[in-house]
Amino acid sequence: MPTLISVFDLPGDVASAVRKLKNRGFDDLTTYSPAPFEEIELAEDVKPSSVRLFTLIGGLSGVFLGFLMQIWMSLEWPIKIAGKNFASIPPYWIIGFELTILFAGVFTLLGLLMMGGLYPRPLDKHYCQRFSAEEFGVVVRCAERDVAEVEALMRGESAKEVSLADA
Amino acid sequence: MAPPPPATAVVDTLRPTSVPRDSRINVDIMAHTKGVQWPYFLALGAAVFGVIQAVLVLAWQTYAGLGVAGYQAPVFWGVYIITFVFWIGIGHAGTLISAILFLFRAKWRNAVNRGAEAMTVFAVLTAALFPLIHIGRLWKFYFLLPYPNQRGLWVNFKSPLLWDVFAVNTYMLISIIFFYVGLIPDIAVARDRATGFKKIVYTILALGWQGTGRQWKAHNRTVLHLSGLATPLVLSVHSVVSWDFAMSIVPGWHATIFAPYFVAGAVFGGFAMVIVVLIPVRRIFGLEAYLTDYHFENMSRFILLTSLICGYAYGAEYFIAWYSAVEYEQTSFWLRAFGPYWFSAWCMILFNAVFPQLLWFKRLRTNLPFLFVLCFLINLGMWFERYVIIITSLSREYIPAAWGLYIPSAVELSVLAGSFCWFGMWFLLFLKIFPVIAIAEVKELAIHEKEHGGAH
């Protein structure tokens, strides 16, 4: 399948190009950006990242396991301290809170690795080190009959270079 | 509109990709990871030497026992606990800059957050050593953890010391995760420009980062969530550390003000350490274009604010001791200022509450040599603050017959010096491997400026 690689200087142009590509049904695209830009993120996909679910599940697991651990261990080895119950809830909030944060943080990291596809692996064929400098890339895979249309669209959005790969 | 040309014609018109160019920001910020700078290697050598001497001294303490550490009745919490609290506090500024200022969208943090985050990680790694050093029998450290054992014995979850174990370890892990997540895009920058062994290492650490939309989306959300998690965490950690003291009934410790007082002090000392570290880094590695007077001035404002909070806390402590009409409290605070440890108490007041008031003057807030000296004194003052809190209270409890005098031993002072060298060693190694300024975040500002004009 032909692949068009376009290089841009500004994130606004990338966002505009992506929106137009999507409006015309060219959904098989990848953007490369040297820094985070909200406009590109919104142009590509307005849905929030699923990382939030990882954080939520981690946090709930942490608070549940934190209290469970403390209550179980306190009842397993009961020591009377300052007249408090063996399983005394108020002081357990502290470790419960810390474990909520810990589990939520670790799960958030897992979410990043899974949702971002982050693991040691070969880089994309069309990735270029210019995209970790100050330039932006948009890679579009399209049918051969659409190459001219995509190329025209990219140039119309101030792409400074457009090249064709895998023709 | 003319119909589009056929695809084959388009192929002919497309220009080949030009020779890769690098950005000025990449070149400038990565420069310190390359080459030989003699001041750097001299500093690294001194730090390694300091660590080695501390390890030898610790080996001697482990062999001879904690008696060589100057512990004697009634003072069994000394320099090691003071230094533990000091280093935990130092880490707080990094989290404040990374997380809290991120949530407030304070863009100026982009230039200083990486150095501060690194400082947080290394400060917490340093702090975490001290409870182990303090227990003397290092190999028994796992007693602090709730682990299944044949005696069916579990730890006491109602003890503030155990809360501390969980708080500090959580803080350490979350700080490391936060630091690493922020580094990933910059490691990819380094990977794309490295060769040989370095490229292999960076490739593994970059986890296939390419800055795709999908990756940035997940990354942005992750940083947002970690910031949201780290903000209450950082407030809880020094609160929990303060409860190591405040939950007891020792005069001078049993105060409800301790948690906010410790948190403010931690941020205060942490910012001072960021400035002490970043001023030489900026000078040695020529980063004046990125770490500007503006950044140091903003940090100075934080120092001024937190100094006022610390000064208020010092005053409130004295007022409540007097107003409570509890003679033990009154005696404790009288002895702080006029007892055998008067020197440390006045250092604390002068360095933390009085001298920082000079930062009301803009000219001084942007005078880097002055800031360096002031922040060095603030760090000294913050160490003395913990010395005052811990030693004056423990050495003068309720019964005068049980009073004593604590003098730090040479062993403790060697380990204290070693802790600064240990922190410095990690920071210096970090400087040679990773960029000290967050490249992607600086680019975000620079590209926005290019697109929209105006300054950030």
Account of the protein in words:
The complex is a heterodimer of chains A (167) and B (456). Chain A is of the alpha+beta class. Chain A folds into 2 domains: 3-47 and 129-165, Alpha-Beta Plaits (2-Layer Sandwich), CATH 3.30.70; 51-115, no CATH class. Chain A contains 5 helices and 4 strands; from the N terminus they run βαβαααβαβ. In chain A, α1 (11-23) runs parallel beside α2 and α3 runs antiparallel to α4 (89-115). Chain A is rod-shaped. Chain B has one domain (35-137, 155-452): Up-down Bundle (Formate dehydrogenase/DMSO reductase fold), CATH 1.20.1630.10. Chain B is 71% helix and 0% strand. Chain B has 16 helices and no strands. Chain B has helices at residues 7-13, 24-30, 38-64, 79-103, 113-135, 160-193, 196-206, 213-246, 258-284, 293-324, 327-338, 342-354, 362-365, 368-395, 410-433, 439-452.
Task: Offer a concise description of the structure.
The complex is a heterodimer of chains A (167) and B (456). Chain A has helices spanning 11-23, 38-44, 51-76, 89-115, 147-156; strands at 3-8, 29-32, 136-141, 161-165.
Write the layout of secondary structure elements.
The complex is a heterodimer of chains A (167) and B (456).
Chain A: E1 3-8, H1 11-23, E2 29-32, H2 38-44, H3 51-76, H4 89-115, E3 136-141, H5 147-156, E4 161-165
Antiparallel strand pairs in A: 1-3, 1-4, 2-3
Helix pairs in contact in A: 1-2, 3-4
Chain B: H1 7-13, H2 24-30, H3 38-64, H4 79-103, H5 113-135, H6 160-193, H7 196-206, H8 213-246, H9 258-284, H10 293-324, H11 327-338, H12 342-354, H13 362-365, H14 368-395, H15 410-433, H16 439-452
Which key phrases capture this entry?
heterodimer, A: alpha+beta, 2 domains, 4-stranded antiparallel beta sheet, 5 helices, 50% helix, B: 456 residues, mainly alpha, Formate dehydrogenase/DMSO reductase fold, 16 helices, 71% helix, 0% strand
